[in-house]
Amino acid sequence: MPTQGPPGPRPAFADDLAAARREAFALLARGVADRRSPFHTPTLATVGADGGPRARTVVLRGFAAEERCLRLHTDARSAKVAELARESRAELHLYDAARQVQLRLRGRATLHQTDAVADAAWAASRPFSRQIYSAQPAPGLPVPAPPPAPRDPEAGRADFAVVQLRFDRLEWLWLCAAGHRRALFTWEPEAMTWLAP
Ligand SMILES: Cc1cc2nc3c(=O)[nH]c(=O)nc-3n(C[C@H](O)[C@H](O)[C@H](O)COP(=O)(O)O)c2cc1C
Is the dihedral of CA 185, 1, 174, 30 positive or negative? Predict the structure, then answer.
C-alpha cells in the first residue's frame, strides 16, 4: 500500500473509533459542499441484470447524516436506474488521495422521479445542470455521431431522477506511514470495530 508523508502528530481518529466515524461523516458532508473535494465525485456500484458489477462516477449532491442518506442525481433512462429498480443494493466508493482515505458505503437505494424528493432536487438544481436531462436520445444508446449538447434547461424534468442511498455499512481506511487504520461501522444494530488493514 502507498503511505502518507512524514509522520506528524496523530489525529484523534487514529486511535478512537467514534472519532474515525465522525471524520468519515465530516468528509462526506464536505464532499457535498466542496466541489473540489475528491469526495464530490464518488463511484457508484450497482448490480447489472446479468448479476455482474457496474461502476460509474457520480456527483455527491446531498448527505443527511442523521438518516445516513446520500443523494445523487441521474437520468431516469440510464442503465443504473434500471439496475437499481431491479436490485436496490448498491455500494459507493470514495477516495481522497491527499488524505489517503477510502470510504466504502453499502446500503439500499430508492428512486425518486415524480415525488416531492425529486421536485425539491429539481427546484434546487441550476439551469446548467438541468440541461443534460433533455438529451436525446436516451443515454447509452448508440448514435451515428456525437449528438449536440442539450440546451433546454426545462425539457428534462420528466427524465430527471434522484437516487437516495441509505447506508447501513461504512468501511473507513486511512493509510498512514505510522500505521494504517481500517474500521467498520454498521447500523441496525449499531456497532463499530477496527479491522486489520
Ligand atoms: C466527473 C463525472 C461526474 C458524473 N456525475 C454523474 C452524475 O451525477 N449522475 C449521473 O447519472 N452520471 C454522472 N456521470 C456519468 C456517469 O459516470 C455515467 O457515465 C453515466 O451516468 C451512465 O452510467 P450508466 O449507464 O451506468 O447508468 C458523471 C461522470 C463524470 C466523469
Answer: negative
Number of folded domains in the chain?
1
Is the CB of 74 inside a 6 Å radius of any atom of ligand 1? yes
The DSSP code sequence of 78-98 is SHHHHHHHH--EEEEEEEETT
Please give the number of the atom of ligand 1 that sits closest to the Cα of 46.
26
Pocket flag, ligand 1, residue 129 (CB < 6 Å)? no
pTM score, two decimals? 0.95
Q: Which domain range does residue 179 map to?
A: 12-195
What CATH code is carried by the domain that includes residue 187? 2.30.110.10
- Whether ligand 1 lies within 6 angstroms of the CB of 56 is answered as yes
Q: pLDDT per residue over 16-36, tens digit each? A: 999 999 999 999 999 999 999
